[in-house]
Design a protein that fits this description.
single chain, alpha+beta, SH3 type barrels, five-stranded antiparallel β-sheet, 1 helix, about 40% strand
């Protein structure tokens, strides 16, 4: 099973062999390959897996996914706190 994470393109670099982008994944910025999404531009959201953008996604769906990840993280933290007690 693969997990693709939504992120927002902040900057694009076309200077190398592959088209790369700095992408913000909920506060963490990573450089990923966007070679296979020639239509992707700054401000667009993409779904990425292991350093490669797989598809484009609209902002509303991206934010909903990021909110769901945040909720899962909170629930896991609460569960960890209960186990300590």
């Amino acid at each position: 099973m693969c997990l693709a994470v939504p992120g927002k393109i902040l900057k694009i670099d076309d200077s190398g062999e592959l088209r790369m982008a700095a992408v913000d994944f909920g506060g963490v910025t990573r450089d990923i390959c966007i070679e296979w999404l020639p239509e992707a531009g700054i401000g667009d959201y993409v779904l990425a897996h292991v350093g490669t953008a797989l598809s484009m996604i609209d902002e509303e769906s991206a934010k909903a996914s990021l909110d769901a990840f945040d909720e899962i993280e909170k629930l896991m933290a609460e569960e960890d706190e209960l186990e300590i007690l």
